[in-house]
Amino acid sequence: MFELIFPPAFILILGAFLIGPIRAPLRPLIVLGAPLLTLYAIWQMGDGIQLTAQFLNYEIQLIESSPLRRLFATIFAIMAFVGGLFAFRQAKWWELAAAQAYAAGAIGVSFAGDLITMFLFWELMAIFSTVVVWCGGTEGARKAGIRYAIMHLVGGVLLKIGIEGVMVHTGSIEIQPIPLTNIDGWLILIGVLINAAAPPLSAWLADAYPESSPSGSVFLSAFTTKTAVLALILLFPGQQILIWIGLYMIFYGIIYALLENDMRRILAYSIVNQVGFMVCGIGIGTEMAINGASAHAFAHIIYKALLLMSAGSVLYMTGRRKCSELGGLYHSMPLTALCGIIGALAISAFPFTSGFISKSMISQSAADQHLMMVWLLLLAASAGVFLHAGIKFPWFVFFQKDSGLRPKDPPWNMRAAMVLLAAGCILLGVFPEWLYRLLPYPVDYVPYTASHLVTQLQLLLFSGLAFFALLPLMKRTLTISLDFDWVYRRLILSLMNRLICLLSCLNTVLRSAFNRIFTIIWSYIGRHHGPEGMLARTWPTGSVVTWVVVLLTVFLLFSIY
Amino acid sequence: MTNRNNAPNNAQKSWLYRPENHKKLWWGFGLILAATVVVQLFVSVHGHFVFDGWFGFSAAFGFVSCALMVVFAKLLGYLLKRPDNYYDDDV
After folding, report:
1. Please, is A36 exposed, middle or buried when counting C-beta atoms within 10 Å of its C-beta (0-12, 13-18, 19+)?
2. Residues 13-42 in B contacting A (C-alpha not used; CB under 8 Å)
3. Residue B12 has what pLDDT?
4. Interval A206-261: pLDDT, tens
């Protein structure tokens, strides 16, 4: 059957191919036009399987649409557009092309109707996100990119083995909830969780993202972890273990962000924290929880991109990234500061911002299921988000002390992108039904009640009090914090060095032992066969003649008798 | 791209950084905090569990949990913090 439907992801792939060869003045047309065209294509599609193809004797479903998939694809396309707007005058063309291919991967995964299609687009994301990391252009970015690529390729291999297991054992490549009854399910879960930056392999995110360019981190923050969230919703809804993995991620993000000095690494840890809320919601698994996780992913992509744009603008204008070197920028960069603060309020779920209407659905679902402990931890985590991202980021970058820096706000396109996203944060907060209408299940939730407003304001403002009261404990230091990546960047390396040392010692010992044995054998052979040896001695002619005479005599005697 | 001026003296400092204003800022913040708690007298907070409707529960919970997280992070920092050039000799 042939249908005149074009996978939306292909539009962006085509765009990515064109960005390089096309003349520079026309580039913005592709960078900004392709995502808008993609957005149009996404909304033209009806629900259900729309396009199939043959691949290695399998019928793969290139497009399967549903409200959930459309929601994720929509925000990915929006981010490709706004990220492109933020980047197109400053970033290199190859970063723009890689980012567009990366976004194509994310949108491809969103509409993948089967595991094979999902895997192909998944790897497309891994490859081009690595290129985006490398576009940071520094030695640090090169190394972090390699570590990032290794981590994602390992994740990809696990995912692939899991998918093949499912194909062999069930004969189906459909995307549907997978039970964790055998190793296949677990391998797929682990492969997906690696992309979600779940423990213990969460360090890749805070390692790689801050090394990218000011615009690169904006793209990176949006796609990889959120496609993993979508994959978890599609494949593992209601898996209880995800509740605890999510809670771990939430507190890991908070604690590491509190210890961190690099402003973009603070935001990177906070991505893990926010994805933790979504993973926890997926683990709870009720309609309200899945709605909450989806809404939170949508809202999160907007405010996290806004925060990273704000940080990226500061980096672009000052060349500095450490909190200890920044401060007092609100005066000379008022718009960047304002947008950063709006993003910070949104991530903290302040009333009338997008975070307030999305995150609370996840907490509500925990309460509805009478998961008191989970609810309490989520509440503490909400307070902690305000602490580590909501106040810490704007405070140390834009206020704190006067660093003496007087940078201006960034160029117009970067400002425009920030204003768009800041408006998005507020509009979604004020008109929650805009987002609720797009969610996978009907929404039976009213975020704005007097009770919710009062408790949320109390929670957040008293977290603020804790921040300022304990500010001396949070004095910035020129440090990083050890994470699990220490294991593969140091421990394994030092173990390998030791192994090499051990082997070389063994080599020396064996060599000398062999030498000694060889010497003994040599001298033994020498004794008998050497120039002075018994068997190598020359015999005098006279004695030989004598022996011949004796022999002949004996022979004569025998022949006579 | 960076303009680094000489360190501004007190008169040039913006309002926020003048020491005499710190007290005003704290008072303003304190009033807002008090208002969010006092308003609970007029708004019935219906909690999901027994305890979360208590007067000022969210305020106390927010403050205490944040204080615990800050202190925990501080302690963990002694164990985990390394100079930021720790990995610089990575291959």
Report:
1. middle
2. 13-14, 16-17, 29, 32-33, 36-37, 39-40
3. 60
4. 999 999 999 999 999 999 999 999 999 999 999 999 999 999 999 999 999 999 99
Report residue B4's pLDDT band, with 50, 70 and 90 as the boundaries: very low
Query: Which pLDDT band holds residue B73 (cuts at 50, 70, 90)?
Result: very high
Tell me, what's the ipTM?
Answer: 0.85
A456, B58 Cβ separation under 8 angstroms = yes
Contact A100, A16 (CB under 8 A): yes
Instruction: Say how far apart CA A406 and CA B17 lie, in whole Å.
Output: 15
Identify residue A351 by its one-letter amino acid code: P
The Cα–Cα gap between A495 and B70 comes to 34
A interface test, pick of B69, B76, B78, B85 with most A CB neighbours within 10 Å: B69
Question: Phi and psi for B4 in degrees, rounded to 5?
Answer: -110, 105
Shortest CA distance from A251: residue in chain B: B69
Phi, psi at residue A64, to the nearest 5°?
-130, 125
Count the neighbouring beta carbons within 10 Å of the beta carbon of residue A318: 22
Distance, CA of A61 to CA of A173 (rounded, Å): 10
For chain B, the structural domain boundaries read 15-80
Among B58, B68, B72, B89, which would you mutate to test the A interface (most chain A Cβ atoms within 10 Å of its Cβ)? B58
Kindly give the interhelix angle for A263-284 and A354-368, rounded to the nearest 10 degrees: 40
Q: Tell me if A268 sits within 8 A of A209, measured CB to CB.
A: yes
CB–CB contacts below 8 A, A to B? 168
Provide the shortest C-alpha distance from residue B47 to chain A (in Å).
8
- B20 to chain A nearest CA, in Å? 15
Q: Which residues of chain B have a CB within 8 Å of the CB of A469?
A: 67
pLDDT the model gives residue A256: 94
Interatomic CA distance for residues A144 and A146, integer angstroms: 5
Considering only the C-alpha atoms of chain B, give the largest distance between any 2 of them, rounded to a whole number of Å: 63
**Burial track A385-403 (b if 16+ CB lie within 10 A, e otherwise):** bbbbbbbbbbbbbbbbebb
Q: Nearest Cβ partner of B17 from A372, A402, A407?
A: A402
DSSP for A468-506, written as a single string: HHTGGGG---SEEE--THHIIIIIHHHHHHHHHHHHHHH
Say if the Cβ atoms of B1 and A319 lie within 8 Å.
yes
B83 forms bridges with which residues in the sheet? A479
How many Å from the N-terminal Cα to the C-terminal Cα in chain A? 113
So what's the pLDDT on residue A10?
93
Residues (pLDDT < 50) of chain A are: 1-3
Q: Do A470 and B71 touch (CB under 8 A)?
A: yes
Please give the pLDDT value at position B21.
83
State both tokens at A300.
């999160």
Are A465 and B4 in contact (CB < 8 Å)?
no
Do residues A257 and A392 touch, judged by C-beta distance below 8 A?
Answer: yes
Q: Does B51 touch chain A (CB under 8 A)?
A: no
Q: What does DSSP say about strands B81-83 and A479-481: parallel, antiparallel, or unpaired?
A: antiparallel
What are A20's two structure tokens?
A: 């390089």
Query: Mutate which of A323, A408, A458 to disrupt the B interface (most B C-beta within 10 Å)?
Result: A458
**Are A317 and B44 within 8 A, CB to CB?**
no
Minimal Cα–Cα distance from A211 to chain B, Å?
A: 13
